[in-house]
Task: structure prediction
Amino acid sequence: VLLLAIDTSTRRVGVAFGSEQGLVAAVTLGGPADPGPPRHAERLAPAIEYAKAEAGIDLGHVSAVTVSVGPGMFTGLRVGVTTAKVMAHALRVPVIPIPSLDLLAYPLRHTRALVVPAIDARRNELYFAIYRSVPGGLQRESGYDLGTPSDLSGELEARAEEALLCGDGAIRFRDAFAGLERVEHAGPGHVAPDLAALVELAAARYEREEFVAPSEVVPMYLRQSDAEIGWQRREAGAAW
Amino acid sequence: VKARTRSAERTRALGGAIAAWLRPGDVVVLAGDLGSGKTTFVQGLAAGLGVTEPVVSPTFTIVREYEGRVPLAHVDVYRLDRVQELHDAGFEELVDGERITVVEWGDAVQRALPAEHLAVDLESGAAPDERLVEVHTQGPGWSDRLRAIEAAVARFGEEDD
Result:
């Protein structure tokens, strides 16, 4: 099974082609070390085109498009999820949506420590989840959460277990975790969702026919608000 | 600090004078009724940032972005009914970054805004193009620029005399 994989949930743009046997091609651009703006919209289509052309891939052989649906950067997710849907629709293949935090955690599944991916959510907040290694993979022990670095550090302190932090949020807010004794950082090799993990997890789901129609795919946005905007002034303006 | 501008041109000039003191990551919150000159003020501010494209009201698009010496995001929340729509427009990423963000009707969504911002309140004056403008800073991040901004705005107050 040949899959097209797209991840734009962080500052890094990632594109890969691969199967259950591994990657055929992978292109990544940008990331936390890139001083410029992320430019997901400008980079994604050329990255797909480059990977396809240089690896000699016929898009007609792609069986499904898999995409990291977040949580993560709002603008990146819009570009990545939309591109995945449009390509799947055009190729008449299904989409396999996979959460970004799962893709950060999966390569670290062979540790006994809790695996804690944290993506920078801006405005001093993180998207995070907590995973535990189990035979055959990882089990998620929390929701996909949004909170401040001190929320996460408090959660880790309360669990009093060894934990391995990964993701760009863990690096950006490193100081918030400095006081925790049993917490280690996976480092710059684990700042962005892993493309090999995306292809591997998606290939397994494809075999189980766990996929969705392109039109049903939505990004995972965790920022929720029930608040209505107080519009005394607008009402006054309408009357005027 | 307060100012009084007697023409749209002067309201634009005030925006330009304030632009000189803005930095990447700043948020400017504009308050004022319909027709009080918010978009006119932003046009001057954009020009001061080196934006050459025409600046038009983003009422129906919610967000417009411009390239200047610092990128500018012009947000208008007038058409929104729920704070969720601001999240859905990617507001958190806009205000946490390399650009200057101006929010029209921002006072209506105060709680969703960064605590640190520059507040600009506009009000129509007695004459048709006269505007009363009040500028104040919120948060310690502005303390080193407070004097300079006050002085820049105060120069427009002298028009009174």
Notes: Chain A has a mean pLDDT of 94. The interface with chain B takes residues 37, 73-75, 78, 121-123, 125, 221, 223-231, 233-234, 236-237, 240 of chain A (CB under 8 Å).
